[in-house]
From TrEMBL:
Organism whose genome encodes this protein: Zafaria cholistanensis
Region (Disordered), start-end ranges: 1-40
Composition skew (Low complexity), residue ranges: 23-40
Keywords per UniProt: Membrane, Transmembrane, Transmembrane helix
Transmembrane segments: 84-102, 109-127, 147-169, 189-209, 221-239
UniProt-listed InterPro entries: UCP010219
Protein name as it appears in the record: DUF3159 domain-containing protein
Amino acid sequence: MNDRTDAGGNPGPEQPGPEPTGPEHTGQPGQGAADGLARRAAAGFHRTEDGQVDVLRTVGGVRGLAESIVPGVVFLSAFTATQALNPSLVAALAVAAAFTVARLAQRTPLTQALAGLAGVVVCALVARSTGEAKDYYVPGFYTNAAYGTAMLLSIAVRWPFMGLVFGFIRGEGTHWRGDRRRQRAYAAATWAIVAVFAARLAVQLPLYFADQVQALGAARLVMGLPLYAMGLWLAWLISRPVAAAEGPRV
């Protein structure tokens, strides 16, 4: 989930986390489907060798950060310098396309670059259709609202999304749902990510309605992947298992 997926929320690397192991993953009735859902939810999230969440790798590494941030920087810089919408849109599209071409030439996975290009195309189309530079940022409002709502629903039905993701990465699968403390911890972790989406809307919507394009663009950049990465790290800490009487958990 990023600002593009934001424009939402937020694309990431292509490899899933480790397979769950241990005696609790022995194929209890109905557990296979639930673990399969957790596996898909956790795709793209990574751990470091010391067992912490690898935030940089999860958001795509340095290259992924560049693919997410640079087109927006180029659009904002070009529009600030020229006050001309069309050249600014062309510049942003050219940069996003260049990232995709570079991946094609190097034969590296295209997922994140294509997601970035698609996000820029959608934003450019919206802005071009209205002739307003501020509307470049409108798709991000909808994606933030959609992701935030989905996270809230996952909490409401007691399947907090970050439990699916982190439970798989930690080898808990979905068995944390049988432990009220773990369920509460993962609900709190999901609330941390909801707070990221809510903060974006709370800060950026007033700037949009006040026609503050430069301030809106700057807020979008700062509150994009950097804020998401911070929220992800906080969610990981909040949901960290505590040592039980019978010994530490994974």
